[in-house]
């Protein structure tokens, strides 16, 4: 899977544990992936599958109860886990931009948006007050907010939901980051505004040549914008591959189950939407068997006693599963 000569981000065997009163929660288990400059990688899975915790682990944005217990995170060859506090702050502020799900709780209600953008520019780019304000107006224009000079004076509550999300994108792009992490940025928006944000991301990606990690529940969004897809379940990546290949030839039963839940325009309106039976796994122990086996109709003895390793099934396409969809039986590994 490491066929990119110099990946922008290279994550190897990342493990994150939350220490709680009721025991340890193994939220991220041996996660490995990379992303190339200019590549958009979609991360999908049910709630609790480890998507957001993985990305927060990359940036060291974890609560005190959490610990990165293993693995390596390299950004342009630099060891992120080995950075001191100042280097880590610069990494978060300058090299990586983050867009969170709810812009209203991410923006500070007591400061106008101009201050929230220029503060970042002055701190990490060393711009003067006047230059920072000019750049802030350019950023608002870049994300499609009309009359940007005037809107710099406005407060978050004076913007619509879609406009607030555009402000968050402007803040994330302020320091020309090489990597953008978008954590379900369109979930709280209506369909029309969602389409506008997605089109904006496509345009910005072409202009700025950023690597983008797009976390979402929506496989339809991933199909429209991503180059590759990471499918997460139980704190692990159970399948990853190019978007067209993965949608056309899913190799893991969980990926297949997710795709089957997508509504179809050809189905009768009276038909019930498909669901995945059962519940996500408990993460109170590191997995010793396939986490999806209790919900999988293809599970057999090996699945219940041995956690599957990721097996190459095509170019940049692998799956962590002992079952072979081509034969309907165990893989020959």
UniProtKB/TrEMBL annotation:
Entry GO CC: plasma membrane
Superkingdom in the source lineage: Bacteria
Gene3D superfamilies in alphabetical order: P-loop containing nucleotide triphosphate hydrolases (3.40.50.300)
KW Transcription regulation (keyword) present: no
Keyword Nucleotide-binding: yes
Family under the similarity heading: Belongs to the ABC transporter superfamily.
Classification via NCBIfam families: oligo_HPY (TIGR01727)
Protein name, per record: Oligopeptide transport ATP-binding protein OppD
Native source organism of the sequence: Pontivivens insulae
Gene name of the record: oppD_2
